[in-house]
Amino acid sequence: MGQPLFTVLKKGLYTTFQDLGRYGYQQFGVVTSGAMDSFSSQLANILVGNPRGEAVLEITMLGPTLRVEVDTISIAVCGADLSMTVNGNKAPLWKSFVVKKGDMIRFGKPVTGTRAYLAVAGGFEAEEVLGSKSFYAKAKLGTEIKDGDILYGTNSTFRKNTGLARHLIPRFRKEVTVRAIAGPHEDHFTNDAIEQFFSDYFRAVQGDRMGYRLKGAIPLQHIDKTEIASDAIPLGGIQVPSNGEPIILLADRQTTGGYPRIATVISVDIYKIAQLPPGGMIRFERCSIETAHELYKKRENFLQHLQG
Predict the structure, then answer these.
(1) In whole angstroms, what is the distance from residue 236 CA to residue 219 CA?
(2) Among residues 125, 143, 168, which one ends one of the domains?
(3) In angstroms, rounded to a whole number, what is the distance separating the alpha carbons of residues 2 and 247?
(4) What is the distance between the alpha carbons of residues 60 and 114, in angstroms, rounded to a whole number?
(5) What would the pLDDT profile of 138-176 be if each residue is shown by its tens digit?
(6) CA 209 to CA 254: how far, in whole Å?
(7) Are residues 212 and 292 in the same domain?
(8) In this structure, are 158 and 186 located in the same domain?
(9) Helix, strand, coil distribution of the chain in percent, nearest 5
(10) Of 137, 168, 199, the domain-final residue
(11) What is the side-by-side strand order in the sheet with 96-100?
(12) Residue 172: exposed, middle, or buried by beta-carbon count in 10 A (0-12, 13-18, 19+)?
């Protein structure tokens, strides 16, 4: 066991260990999990000198209260602004900085976004299950964080403070445009429904790590059958059940599903949904597979360049 880093005085609304996910087991019914906003989690790790896939704390809406137990350690918090303070003073986001033994880290009300990611230099010690430290609540995979727990680290390597330039920091909004690739089950929907999907606004009426349920002005109409043979579900797949209300499937999505999918959100725009507050508005924009690939490669090049 490594050295203690933090005591969890209050765990907050929903604070979990997440990395980039549990891949290679969906055919056995094991969900992928991982950070909802993997862009922010990777940036937090880069800023403290970790590999991009190291586990971080994913902090949702109302965050925890942590007491620092190690002499000094470098941390970085990226993603949502959840009013983080250290010893009552406002703490920086998108920048690594040092905290010391006895320091109190607190999170308050959300200002922008809904999920923040706290990385520590050297990474957290947490149970690794099927190649991932990500916690999946329904199956109790991984290490659950509770009030009073001590969080351990594998290394407390000091790193010079570094931050992200202001123009590179993503903005989290309450109304977003999300690019999506149409299909694969377009033939299950009327032409009007497809046109409506790519032109109307939808409100996020309910959401969690499994997915966001959306509501439009009128339900999306199927041509005939509202079910299909069970099919593998990709990240960002948008199912439309019989009520015509789309569901965007996210990190803790089921492995297969029997509702037709009208579109799939491209990878680089998933963060917009992960950071959308309850009641937020989404508009979908058509995107080609080729464009999605180019945008993904551009983001990957950016992360690799930042990592050095």
Answers:
(1) 20
(2) 168
(3) 41
(4) 6
(5) 999 999 999 999 999 976 655 667 889 899 999 999 999
(6) 11
(7) yes
(8) no
(9) 15, 35, 50
(10) 168
(11) 14-18, 56-60, 112-120, 72-81, 96-100
(12) buried
Quickly tell me which residue has 């680290």 as its tokens: 153
Asked if residue 183 and residue 291 are part of one domain, the reply reads yes
Distance in angstroms (rounded) separating the CA atoms of residues 254 and 256 = 6
- The boundaries of the domain holding residue 249 are 175-307
Interatomic CA distance for residues 97 and 50, integer angstroms: 14
User: Do the beta carbons of residue 15 and residue 126 sit within 8 Å?
Assistant: no
φ and ψ at residue 291, rounded to 5 degrees: -65, -40
Q: What is the pLDDT of residues 112-123, one digit of tens each?
A: 999 999 999 999
Distance CA 14, CA 19 (A): 16
Number of domains composing the chain: 2
Q: How sure is the predictor about 19, in pLDDT bands with cuts at 50, 70 and 90? A: very high
Q: Are 105 and 86 in contact (CB under 8 A)?
A: yes
260 in the same domain as 122: no
**DSSP state letter for 168:** G
| Percent above pLDDT 70 for the chain | 98
Give me the CATH number covering residue 228. Answer: 2.40.100.10
Residues 164, 187, single domain; the answer is no
Other Cβ atoms closer than 10 A to 86: 19
Residue 155 shares a structural domain with residue 204: no
Which structure tokens are listed for 253? 């999505």
Convert the pLDDT of each residue in 259-295 to its tens digit.
Answer: 899 999 999 999 999 999 989 999 999 999 999 999 9
Helices (H), 126-239: 191-197
Is the domain of 28 the same as that of 113?
Answer: yes
3-class state of residue 165 by DSSP = coil
Question: Is residue 25 within 8 Å of residue 232, measured between CB atoms?
Answer: no
C-alpha 94/C-alpha 74 separation (Å) is: 13
DSSP structure class, residue 246:
-
Q: What is the DSSP letter of 148?
A: T
81 and 190: one domain? Answer: no
Is the entire prediction scored with pTM above 0.90?
yes
